[in-house]
Amino acid sequence: VRIVVLCGGVGAARFLDGVVRTVADPSAVTALCNVSDDLSWHGLHVSPDIDTVIYTLAGLEGEFGWGLEGDTHTALSELSILGGDEWFTIGDRDLATHILRNEVLERGGTISEATTAIATARGISCRLLPVTNDLHPTIVRTAEGELAFQEYFVRHRSADIVTGFRFPGAETAHPAPGVVESIREAELILFAPSNPFVSIEPLLSVPGVRTAIATSIVPRVAVSPIVGGEAVKGPAAEMLRSLGHEVSALGIARLYRGLIDTLVIDFADAKLAPYIENLGIQTLVLDSMMRDRDGRTRLASEVLQAVAP
Amino acid sequence: VRIVVLCGGVGAARFLDGVVRTVADPSAVTALCNVSDDLSWHGLHVSPDIDTVIYTLAGLEGEFGWGLEGDTHTALSELSILGGDEWFTIGDRDLATHILRNEVLERGGTISEATTAIATARGISCRLLPVTNDLHPTIVRTAEGELAFQEYFVRHRSADIVTGFRFPGAETAHPAPGVVESIREAELILFAPSNPFVSIEPLLSVPGVRTAIATSIVPRVAVSPIVGGEAVKGPAAEMLRSLGHEVSALGIARLYRGLIDTLVIDFADAKLAPYIENLGIQTLVLDSMMRDRDGRTRLASEVLQAVAP
Q1: Integer CA distances (angstroms), B262 to B1, B10, B42, B276, in order
Q2: In whole angstroms, what separates CA B262 from the centre of its chain?
Q3: In sequence order, what are the beta bridge partners of B44?
Q4: What is the ipTM of this complex?
Q5: Looking at the complex, does the CB of residue B69 fall below 8 Å from at least one CB of chain A?
Q6: Is some CB atom of chain B closer than 8 A to the CB atom of A25?
Q7: CB of B54 within 8 Å of any CB in chain A?
Q8: In chain B, which residues have their Cβ closer than 8 Å to the Cβ of A79?
Q9: Tell me: the pLDDT tens digits for B62-99?
């Protein structure tokens, strides 16, 4: 079964890991990865979501889901000594990833090529595609002004009240090679449990992607990132609230209306099922929390068993 | 006294350190630094000679004269895991230097600007100028073909028989800002004990530099890198031999004829003094070996006392 998974960061990486461990042929799984929270770190291109996906699939992810487990921070400390303002943490092993990506980009390669090089070196068995190779940043609007995504997310620890988003590169961004084709050829489209505003929307906003999904006739299934009125991880709940949406799986269903056929919701949200189904979206009610590595494969296999064609 | 020091790597860094520790006003010392052994390391610009000078002046240099003392190699090991062929050793603390340089270059800055940023962050009190901000690599000709300098020096451990050199960027290279001016305004020009072929010649071959030194009327003093028929460090002796020069301070004197007034030679080479003076070059005979940190200031102060105007 050819599967496309729309991916943000930590939650997506864990769900994708479950999918890859569940399916018979991981090479038939294509992850479309968000690059709108990429940043230039001292001139090195860093793709946090792609790296989280790769480290997680390789079983190397750090305690909080990002970075490499047990990494050291010698280079970072030295940069601080040299006067850098090191609010974005990059470990020494992690640096190798960014150095390798830099090498590919310096010789004229694309983020796609860099991603393939890094994923291949890590023995990743599924296909990872950045949604675009063009600059396509997420700008977060707050009461105090606009922030680059990582300024908002890491430097400010998601503390600002979000009033909106801007994707200045969206109109001119081209989907990376294989992105639209993979959606057209998919037999199943999964929305990983990711932030709808800063993980999924940047994917959809690349020209051709939203239309390809909206017009697809294969099963399209999202896993709600909101469980029991709270985000499993990250600032999704605060964003829903400040932007005037209901902070629930129903709020997620409204955002994805027209793009999905089924929403996976947790037992905790079973009471929302009729309201979601009233929007023309089926529900799949199960234990959607991935508490550990086994939880990932359990969730993925339950979803696939229920919805795979 | 305004002093210019022509610098290569380890020997030069140690001598310059002695000069800086000896003079009353280190800011009046300008080091012209070789950049012809610079390399692109996974897309990061590395300037080994400049880094050696900075680390040595900061008192941080590694056991063998290059890199940082007690550095770790976590990122390098990870790059090996990712499939890199890591023959050029870069430590984790060392990486901070190359990342900072990369940042300056990525935003359109020059090697000069990157050097100043790094030197300032390390508290270096003298002035460090790369001889050029243009690409000006040393190509080493060997019986088996041409090698980039670091391929010859590090990867092949200087094992090839050298038949010549090529500086393909020399004709089009521009001296970096301040280089020719510093020579013209100098009251004393010192040639550090560096390799004449791959440290000093690349400096001289930048248009304007050789002429500025050849026509200078201030004292011009070189410290012989050959002592007792051997190079204090590096492949200078093998190069002199294979290129048909005498492997001695006299061989060095012949190479620098027309550019220097005085050659500093070791007591071990006192017998060569008449032959060197016969070339129109005065000799200053002393203990030229820098065995430790004190040895650097001893040599520098003896030289300055003898030749400073």
Answers
A1: 18, 22, 42, 9
A2: 19
A3: B41
A4: 0.90
A5: no
A6: no
A7: no
A8: 96, 99-100
A9: 988 999 999 999 999 999 999 988 899 999 999 999 99
